[in-house]
Automatic annotation (TrEMBL):
Species, as recorded: Rhizopus delemar
GO molecular function, one term: medium-chain fatty acid-CoA ligase activity
AMP-dependent synthetase/ligase domain span: 27-350
Transmembrane segments: 235-257
Domain of life where this protein originates: Eukaryota
Keyword field: Membrane, Transmembrane, Transmembrane helix
Organism ancestry: Eukaryota, Fungi, Fungi incertae sedis, Mucoromycota, Mucoromycotina
Family statement drawn from the similarity comment of this UniProt entry: Belongs to the ATP-dependent AMP-binding enzyme family.
PANTHER family xref list: ACYL-COA SYNTHETASE, ACYL-COA SYNTHETASE FAMILY MEMBER 3
Protein name: AMP-dependent synthetase/ligase domain-containing protein
InterPro entries: AMP-dep_synth/lig_dom, ANL_N_sf
Single GO biological process annotation from the record: fatty acid metabolic process
Length: 408
């Protein structure tokens, strides 16, 4: 972790890390022997330390280095699982922009994304080989690599590639901070999905959200290295990236279920087996949890959680109030791929304001989140053009700012 003089508020910590990949590298050394990943395997959960994840992903990066072949963007199609994290980290270690393609996309949508991003290097798992191959065939010069399910036990027994320092580039400078590192696309509900370029600054600020909260509200300590998070959200969405980065920032551990969406039985087993202290999920999963808890009448696993963060869709007020009445600290979080995670409810466990939001990026010296009066009598929320949380090239206001309402 950066020294105490490096903060998120003044962005000095961002200049300390310089890039998301370097952030993962640094954290892997800082928390080398601590558990980073808890993944489901054969009716139990196995663990991997930060140093083990680092070694596995470094070896994979060395193995795949030749596939980069001078291209700037690599695409990946897979479901959310522990292999997704390994592949993402490995490809990003090649200093190539990672395009996270949701497996829910149609072939025309995938082709459109490949064209817009000029991605010629495509990785996919056997389940998505057919659609990936068909899409690649429509892109001149595109090549598909099919990755078999990773044998984690075998990779754990492999030593670090002795040439990794020759193969990979570990020279990070301040120029990397505002360079694109990852692409997430919009939902594409009304048209083809739109690729949204995320800089290293964006990803680092997403990862350090809880640290920023702590800087502003010193009496609240959202997470620390002893926490374990169950995140029921995929890595090809902002919410999933936010959770993974937040875990890495404090040296805590994260859980990978067999797949998403999970059953309530799977969630309950994961919470208990791993002694979870934090959870993140879309509202629908939490709403489905209520009848399960009512039927089994055992609230011990969810009442142990410091907080349960939800986002991505509206949460029924009566459901939230039910959780509060049963001493489960659900908390609202708000953001979008264009603007990052920028607001959340009061994380103080004593607070009952579970559904209200506060802008976390507003300081006494400067406010990046503004409520603007409009002619229709409503207030529109927008981010100023100099906000450190904005994705690249998404301005939709004459002053260079971003109005999230204008994207929907």
């Amino acid at each position: 972790m950066p020294s105490a003089i490096n903060s998120i508020s003044d962005q000095s910590a961002i200049y300390y890390y310089k890039s998301f990949v370097n952030f993962i590298n640094v954290q892997s050394k800082t928390y080398a022997d601590r558990v980073f990943v808890r993944y489901y395997s054969n009716n139990t959960f196995k663990t991997l330390t930060y140093s083990e994840v680092d070694r596995i992903t470094t070896n994979l990066a060395c193995e795949w280095a030749e596939k980069k072949n001078g291209f700037e963007v690599v695409s990946y199609i897979n479901e959310h699982n522990v292999d997704y994290m390994f592949t993402m980290f490995a490809l990003m270690k090649l200093r190539i922009i990672f395009l996270a393609i949701s497996p829910r996309n149609s072939e025309p949508a995938i082709v459109n994304l490949l064209e817009k991003t000029q991605s010629k290097v495509i990785f996919a798992t056997p389940k998505y080989e057919s659609i990936a191959q068909s899409a690649a065939a429509k892109i001149d010069g595109a090549k598909l690599t099919v990755i078999q399910p990773l044998d984690i036990e075998a990779m754990l027994n492999q030593p670090l590639n002795p040439r990794y320092k020759e193969i990979l580039d570990f020279n990070f400078t301040e120029k990397d901070i505002d360079q694109p590192a990852l692409i997430i696309h919009s939902s594409g509900s009304t048209n083809f999905p739109k690729p949204i370029y995320l800089s290293n600054r964006y990803l680092l600020n997403a990862s350090s959200f809880f640290q920023l909260y702590k800087e502003q509200y010193s009496h609240v300590h959202p997470m620390n290295e002893d926490d374990t998070m169950l995140a029921c959200v995929p890595l090809f969405h902002l919410f999933g990236l936010f959770c993974l980065g937040s875990i890495a920032f404090v040296g805590a551990s994260t859980i990978f279920l067999k797949g998403l969406p999970p059953s309530q039985k799977e969630i309950d087993f994961a919470l208990r087996h791993n002694n979870c202290t934090v959870m993140a999920a879309p509202p629908i999963i939490l709403e489905q949890m209520i009848p399960y808890l009512q039927e089994h009448n055992d609230f011990s696993a969810v009442q142990r959680l410091k907080f349960v963060l939800f986002g991505g869709a509206p949460f029924k007020r009566e459901a939230g109030e039910w959780f509060q009445a049963h001493n489960v600290n659900v908390r609202n979080a708000y953001g979008s791929t264009e603007m990052n995670v920028t607001m959340c409810a009061d994380l103080d466990p004593k607070s009952k304001n579970w559904n209200s939001l506060r802008p976390i990026w507003n300081f006494s010296s400067e406010s990046y989140i503004v409520l603007e009066n409009t002619d229709d009598g409503l207030k529109h929320l927008y981010l100023t053009s100099n906000s450190p949380t904005l994705a690249l090239g998404i301005s939709n206001r004459p002053d260079g700012g971003f109005n999230n309402a204008m994207t929907h």
